[in-house]
Amino acid sequence: MDIILVPGFWLQGSSWDNTTPALIDAGHTVHPVTPPGLESIEAKRAGIGLRDHVDAVLRLLDSLPAGAVLVGHSGGGAVIHAVADARPEKVIRGIYVDSGPLGAGGSINDELPVVNGEIPLPDWSVFEEPDLRDLNDELKAHFRQVSIPEPVGVAQDKQVLHDERRYQVPSSVICCEFSAADAQRWMDGGEPMMAELAKMTDLELLDLPTGHWPQLTRPKELGELLLQLVERR
C-alpha cells in the first residue's frame, strides 16, 4: 500500500526516516513529503501558502492510481484534511499524528513569531511543557540543526474546504501530548477546536504518550502504530 507522510512545521520528509522501517519491512511503499519551501535553508519561501502544500500532496496522490493512506503530523494534519476534501475517493485512511483536521476558515497557527518574512523554529520557551516531553537536549539540538523556516502563508492562510465526503474518510488520531480520553471529552463537550473531528463518521483515537514530535522521541513505536492502522481495513 502507498503511504504519504506529511511532516509538521520546520521538518522535511527525512524526519520520518526512523519511523518508516516498520512500514517498509511489511512491504508498504512510503512517500515522505518535503513540502514546498522546506527543501533547504536557501529555498525560496516568499509567496508559498497552505494551498501550495496541499497541491504538492495532491499531485503525489494523483500519481498513485490505487490511492493512498495519508499521514499528517502537526500542521501536516491540516494539509492531509484538505487533500481528503479534494480527493475523498482516493484517501484510504487519514492518520493525524498529534494533530487533527482543520476546519474551513481556520488557520494552522497565526501566532508564531515571524522573522524576516518567515517563521524559523522558535525558542523552546514558546512551547508548552507537554510539547517537549521526551525531547531531550540531544534531540533538541538535532531538531534545531535540521529545522527549516516555515513559509508564513502556510501558518496563517485560511483553510478552504468544499466536499463533506471528507467526513466519511476513515480517520485515526494518534494522541501524544494529549490523550485519547482528553480528545473524546473535548469532542463530547463541543470544543470548537474539535468540531471538525467530531463530524468524522469513522474515527479512532489512539494513545502514544510522548511530546509533540513522536517521530523524534518515539519513532519505532510510532512506526508500529502506523503499521497497525495502515493494515486495518
UniProtKB/TrEMBL annotation:
Gene3D superfamilies found in the cross-reference section: alpha/beta hydrolase
GO molecular function: catalytic activity
Taxonomic superkingdom: Bacteria
PANTHER family (alphabetical): AB HYDROLASE-1 DOMAIN-CONTAINING PROTEIN-RELATED, ESTERASE_LIPASE_THIOESTERASE DOMAIN-CONTAINING PROTEIN
Source species: Psychromicrobium lacuslunae
Family annotation (InterPro entries): AB_hydrolase_1, AB_hydrolase_fold, Sec-Metab_Biosynth_Hydrolase
Name of protein: Esterase
Residues covered by the AB hydrolase-1 domain: 3-222
